[in-house]
Amino acid sequence: MKPNKKAKVLLIAPNMVGMSDGLNRIQPSLGLMLIASTLLEHGHEVKIHDTGLAGWENRRVIDPIKDPKKIEIGQSDEDIRKYIQEYSPDMVAISVLFSNFLDSAHTVARITKEVNKNITVILGGNHISNSVIDYGFSKDPSSNLHDYIPDLEDNNIDLAMVGEGEFSMVQLADAVANNKDMSKVPGLVKKIGPKKYLINPKNRTTDLNLLPRPARHLVDMEGYFKIGAFQGAKPRSPRVLSIMCSRGCPEKCNFCTTPMMWGHNIRWRPVKKIMEEVNEDVKRYNIGEIQFLDDTLTLDKNHLYEMCDELEKLGLPWCTPNGTKVNYHLKDQQEMYYRMANSGCYQITLAVESGSQRVLDNIVDKRLPLETVYPAIERAKKAGMLVHTFYIVGYPGETFEEMEKTYNFAINSGADSFSFAILQPLPGTPVYRQVVKEKLWWPGRGLNDMMKRSSLIKVDGFDDPQKYEEWVDSLNMKANLILKKNDPARFHQKYKERTGDKYLKLQS
Fold first, then answer.
1. Which of 10, 135, 238, 500 minimizes the number of CB atoms within 10 Å of its CB?
2. What one-character DSSP code corresponds to residue 2?
3. Does the model's pTM come out above 0.85?
């Protein structure tokens, strides 16, 4: 019996596309590194290439007339082509974590097929997983959703992989390398006819202990450190180690893709495994800060406390840049925040989302009593942590008065810094389907503009999206004047770079 051949796999994070004031972070993809390490464990050859990192200094305005603020960051087509030619893979898997990077992914697919039409091209990540969810709702004609999967209309993309891809990609690589039937691979999606698809059930790794460590040795960690553009409102070091402790979220916020991608049942990695990874990589990469990217880090108090005990021994600063829910463990919250602070947590980010209880209850479906927010902030600060807070404005059905209420709620909360974001309706979410069904976007903007512009949804109190975007910019600047007081240099850099003359006018 002949031994199975092994595949040569190239995993690509494509160029970054979005608004110039929003593309301010870049960090290695945990998803690609986990897929890479799983493939390596099974004997396949793997490379990871982040075209955004490789071409970080290359920035171009895509359409100076229609969209002067929309830019692309990353490598030229020729440089991407050269990289693919030199590696000559059997498979190219392109990750689309954010929908606004989709055009770049299709560019990589086209270039790949131009290099060699026999290379199998796979699209993966949050975007395609959630697009397949939306396709399931399109059978209702009133949905106004596409009755096909747009990304698979691109003949340069052979397959899509939805859900958790680590072990599915191993099966797919085995099939591609040995010319075997791939129709049973979990999570595989393939066009089989006009508006007809093979859609296999998602794979879901129930035991996260089975996952290997992310293959950080396959990415240019020093390149990311040099740029130093990780998450966090006020990072302590440019040498950041990003860690995920769990998958899934029990919450139901209608704008969030996390439960769509990872499920509502939360699964935890054992603390022992987390800390083995942390301790080894801290030494290997001379790490100065740890960022936990979980949305629900504080949900399981026992798991959190066990981890805090180990982090205290490590003695490094850490934070929660993705945001945690405010009202977990209210009776023990002060103790919890002390445990976090004593173990090195210098900043906690709280995801409040709105200062209107009506908006939280009836629009967002976020189970958060607002009366719990101010005490939580007070407890976190008493424990010695900085507090950053997230808010979103521009929900369908939200009034101008409620947006102003959110701003006033935030600035009176006692938090150290604030983020006011314009709602982006993400594929796969209930709010996206509502916006599409009810055609709630601004005149001249539509389904194809989703995730490509700062403001897409008509907002109460405004008749022009640009004026609305400027208003939200002003909210951020005015609210974060407290940041100017505590750290004038960082405030000046952050807001002058984003808003130019508007910053200077505000200061005068």
1. 500
2. P
3. yes
Confidence at residue 489, expressed as pLDDT on a 0 to 100 scale = 62
Residue 451, domain member (yes or no): no
Residues 17 and 141 in one domain: yes
Quick check: is 338 in a domain? yes
- Considering the domain architecture, whether residues 188 and 261 belong to the same structural domain is answered as no
**Higher-pLDDT residue of 465, 495:** 465
- Report yes or no on 174 lying in a domain: yes
User: Is pLDDT at 488 greater than 70 in this prediction?
Assistant: no
> Cα–Cα distance between 425 and 255 in angstroms, integer?
6
Q: Which residue has the higher pLDDT, 232 or 12?
A: 12
125: Cβ contacts below 8 Å, ≥ 6 apart:
31, 94, 95, 96, 97
Which residues have CB under 8 Å from 429's CB, separation 6+?
Answer: 130, 254, 255, 256, 257, 260
Per-residue confidence (pLDDT) for residue 93, from 0 to 100: 98
Contact of 431 with 425, CB cutoff 8 Å: yes
User: Which CATH number belongs to the domain containing residue 195 in this structure?
Assistant: 3.40.50.280
| Residue 261 neighbours by CB under 8 Å, 6+ apart | 126, 129, 130, 163, 428
Give the torsion through C-alpha atoms of 120, 124, 130, 134, to 10 deg. Answer: -10
Q: How far apart are CA 178 and CA 346, in angstroms?
A: 51
Q: Identify whether residues 264 and 186 lie together within a single domain.
A: no
Per the structure, how many domains does the chain have?
2
Q: What dihedral do alpha carbons 454, 459, 464, 465 form, nearest 10°?
A: 0
Asked if the model's pLDDT at residue 499 lies above 50, the reply is no
- Axis-axis angle for helices 126-137, 430-438 (nearest 10): 50
Distance CA 436, CA 506 (A): 36
- 265: tokens are 């049942």
Coil, helix or strand at residue 242: strand
Residue whose pair of structure tokens reads 């690509």 in the numeric block: 12
Structure tokens of 64?
A: 């100076």
Q: How far apart are CA 188 and CA 178, in angstroms?
A: 17
Q: Are residues 195 and 268 in the same domain?
A: no
Judge contact between 454 and 422, C-beta under 8 A.
yes
- Domain extent, residue 160, equals 8-199
Helix (H), strand (E), coil (C) string for 128-195: HHHHHHHHHHCCCHHHCCCCCCHHHHCCCCCEEECECCHHHHHHHHHHHHCCCCCCCCCCEEEEEECC
Residues 246 and 162 in one domain: no
Identify residue 500 by its one-letter amino acid code: G
Using the predicted structure, report yes or no on whether residue 503 has a pLDDT greater than 50.
Answer: no
Q: Give tens-digit pLDDT for 131-173.
A: 999 999 999 999 999 999 999 999 999 999 999 999 999 999 9
Q: How far is CA 249 from CA 187, 294, 295, 474, in A?
A: 20, 9, 7, 32
- Please write the tens of the pLDDT for every residue from 12-37: 999 998 777 666 789 999 999 999 99
**Cα dihedral sign, 65-67-68-72:** negative
